[in-house]
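pls design
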């Protein structure tokens, strides 16, 4: 087998991994856009296909990349080839993309969305940030929402928060109701 082919295969697998990462990541990000689901729900669900494929394919691709990188490193030592800056940049891009995407999905996996009827316990203003307190949780809202919300009233609320930062969340939806808690 031609030893130079390991270097070429490593370069190809690097590009394949990057394409897999980015297509899965972009597809996943697009699924969070509600207007796509409203426009065509089937298309919305098909956006998960690259993510699901990448979930199973990336570990195999990474093992192949490690194998080819080890073999091409041997090749470089034996033949005295110099690695090009372009190769370093491609590998650096791969590493940074992997780290960024793994961190993003880790943080996303900790995000929880809650909906229901909640009584607004308190309104809090800290500089230019506006919060309401629901169930002893501080939920960030916009200035206009803050002005329309009344303390002690019950609202239909949907909000998201992260397990890593449980004291802060973001308001997704709030609607007034005629419900009164005793």
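designed seq:
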């Amino acid at each position: 087998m031609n030893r130079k082919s390991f270097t070429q295969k490593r370069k190809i697998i690097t590009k394949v991994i990057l394409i897999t990462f980015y297509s899965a990541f972009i597809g996943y990000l697009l699924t969070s856009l509600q207007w796509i689901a409203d426009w065509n729900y089937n298309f919305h669900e098909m956006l998960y296909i690259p993510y699901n494929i990448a979930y199973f394919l990336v570990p195999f691709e990474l093992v192949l990349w490690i194998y080819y990188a080890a073999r091409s490193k041997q090749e470089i030592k034996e033949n005295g080839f110099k690695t090009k800056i372009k190769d370093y940049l491609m590998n650096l891009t791969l590493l940074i993309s992997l780290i960024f995407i793994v961190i993003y999905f880790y943080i996303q996996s900790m995000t929880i969305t809650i909906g229901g009827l909640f009584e607004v316990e308190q309104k809090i203003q800290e500089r230019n940030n506006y919060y309401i307190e629901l169930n002893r949780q501080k939920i960030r809202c916009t200035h206009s929402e803050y002005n329309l919300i009344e303390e002690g009233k019950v609202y239909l609320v949907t909000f998201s928060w992260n397990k890593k930062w449980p004291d802060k969340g973001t308001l997704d939806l709030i609607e007034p109701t005629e419900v009164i808690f005793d």
